[in-house]
Amino acid sequence: MSNDEKRTTDVLNQLKFGTILVKQKINGKKYPRRFFLHEHEDFISYEESRKTFGKPRIYRIKDIDEVRSGFRSRTFDQLVRNGSISVSEEDLAFTIMYNNHRNEVHLMAPDVTTRNLWIVGVHNLIDQHAHKSQRHLITEENWILNYFREADKDRSNTLSKRECRRLLTNSLNVKVPYTVFEQLFRKADKSQEGLLSPEEFVGFFQLLTQRKDLYEIMKQYTENGRSHSIENVHMNVDELLSFLRIVQNQKLTINVKTHDGRDQIIRESIEKPEQAQELIDEFELDTGFRQKGQLSLDGTLHIFVNRDLASDIQLCKERLDNNQLLISGFRNMLLSGDFDIVNPSHARQIYQNMTRPLCDYYINTSHNTYLFYGQLSGESNPEAYNRALLAGCRAVELDCYDGSDGKPIVTHGYTLVKPCSFESIIRYMEPNLFKTSPYPVILNIENHCSLEQQNEMARILESILGDQLLKEPLVHAANPRYLPSPEDLKYKVIVRSRKTTKATKPNIIIQSEDDDDPIFDPPSKRMQYNLGELFIFLQNVPYRDYDYAKHNYSSWHSSSLAETRFEKLSRSDPTSLILQTTWRTLRTYPGGFRQDSSNANPVTAWIHGIQMAALNFQNEDDIMPLCYGKFLDNGGCGYVLKPTYLINAHETDYNPLNPKLDLDQAKVLTLTIISAQFLSRSKTDISDIPDPYVMISIQGVPCDQKIQKTKVIENNGLDPIWNEKFSFNIKYSQLALVYFSVYDRDSFTLDDKLAYFCLPLTMMQTGYRHIHLRANNNDLTHSTLFVHVDIQDDDDDDDNITSTRF
Length: 806
What we know:
By secondary structure, this protein is α+β, with helices and mostly antiparallel strands. It folds into 5 domains: about 130 residues, PH-domain like, CATH 2.30.29; about 70 residues, Orthogonal Bundle (Recoverin, domain 1); about 100 residues, EF-hand (Recoverin, domain 1), CATH 1.10.238; about 270 residues, Phosphatidylinositol (PI) phosphodiesterase (TIM Barrel, Alpha-Beta Barrel); about 130 residues, C2 domain (Immunoglobulin-like, Sandwich). Helices cover about 30% and strands about 25% of the residues. Strands 15-14-13-16-17-20-21-22-23 form a 9-stranded mixed sheet. The protein has a 7-stranded antiparallel sheet with strand order 4-3-2-1-7-6-5. The chain starts with a helix and ends with a strand. One of its GO terms (biological process) is intracellular signal transduction. One of its GO terms (molecular function) is calcium ion binding.
């Protein structure tokens, strides 16, 4: 164990012991409680007060988004202003944000040391959880024994057959045939008592979760594989090398330093037996196989018997430390990040040219960012900005109005949405502006403020953002007519808004071409000079046709298009749209009829070159995964370079509605959906075992859009196997997204989506790949799909699709 690991363990042990913290409420009430980290490190809670009738709240580590020091929250800000807390106590304060920044708990420690202990500890827990995948969990005795403890209703420290069968249906989401269950139970029950101890349950769990699909693959690619059982089948170095080169087309991921000190990922082809041996040394956990230069499937399983739970856990740890509680080297390897379906050199680093003009990039963009729920009620919340920024968003929206106290507010005009101060939003999101990306953040300001409050907005922006705020013009090194690049604008905040001197009559309902909604305009729309001078590059102007724009607009003039108008233009005059995106930025946003915060499909905007397709990040609908998938590319920095034929559309005559153009490399994508592992139910209160099926959708230009789905596997969310093959002909491969969705078939209501994953076709690795699925809110899960991917050039360029089963 390294020194850092020892320090982390020491910190977490102190949190498990617990400390007195004061829980602060916005009304000024204080609740001292002993907060502690649960012994299994999966949640934080506090000891129940004798005067409290309700159960203490549990803060699960998987739900915690951020831990924040000091008074950087609206609740603490209000308490300070009310005099409930002294400014001098800021060093004792911290806030835990959870549930996608929708909820928060505000705490005061007795001293700075204790406060810092909790902050460091929670940071470590968040980081550990973010890096734990199925590969790690299935070797953790705590994770496996959590199932045991949950099923042990009578606290006997054993599981009967009845308890075990309930566990399978209630927690592991599988209905196992009676004969198969009896066979597994007898094999695990080494004491022959008809009960499973914790160690025997670990053996039962590993027998249950053996990967029969991987066994078939190993039998196919090893010389004597068909003569070996699932327990002793293995690959030698030469067989592994052949598998990696011919079947996987696998490359090794190597981290290097560039000449200027930056981290860079390079990919090295696997050509030598020594490289295969290195993988065996890394992933094979069984010492015997490893020393022989062999990669096993399920290794050696050691089951031991003890009736004391504390001793059981300790023995499990000893066996794990001694490489005796194992998963296979082959499974371990295929579940690792480098063998994921996502190309790590595209997902883990910024690899694209970032020195081109801003208009040459797709930009991750949010609509009405201040909302957490629907469009008509709720509240404007600064934490919604933090959620969007930490999810990779680089362009956020603020709808600004005059506040009654002379300070500007952000709200959805003329709705029941409660306002929030403009200053609080800028202040609370400032620390998170560049956490996920160094490239510019764009503030789309829909401005309805009076001259006085516009002046106050300018003061707030300058005082909080300081040098981060772009206040002086930058010109392109080669040509001042071009927009600067993301590289030029690193760590800068750009204001995008209207700049007009024309006054309008008060209380008139108008629909502006560059506003999101019909509004009652304030008496004046004249811009105060010191606010207007911040609108350097992205000055919002009405959208006009190409000829008008070419003669009257410059590259820093930007236009917004409502969903309905954009759809009409994309059908009637797509060329004008596309050509304008080659030299200036355009933005689309959801129509006003989407009061439920639903989203339009952004792919339509992207294939027309629109840089900013604004989406309601607050909605967990079927559309948001397209955004997460699109901007998974280029290291998740929020800027993705458009294809050359879109950048140079004035030369290529690109038109997404013309399938006869030959501008991209057409591909044939062949996907075999093999199996899934550890699928969860869509909701915790649903009692039915999932009946899963997989839907594969290709999203791109109209001629490439196709949907196919597998058959339904009944009563099995644990390890359903499909083995179904699908083939897709894709003409515009650089614009195609591949969207995997796992659904639970329901005969009486709409099918529930259990999990998903979406990625660009250009990021897919070929061969046998696991897909680490995401929850509907984009949280990480331990669920996986296992697929085989083949991508070939389409020389015939046909437009057929087939589905077969084998």
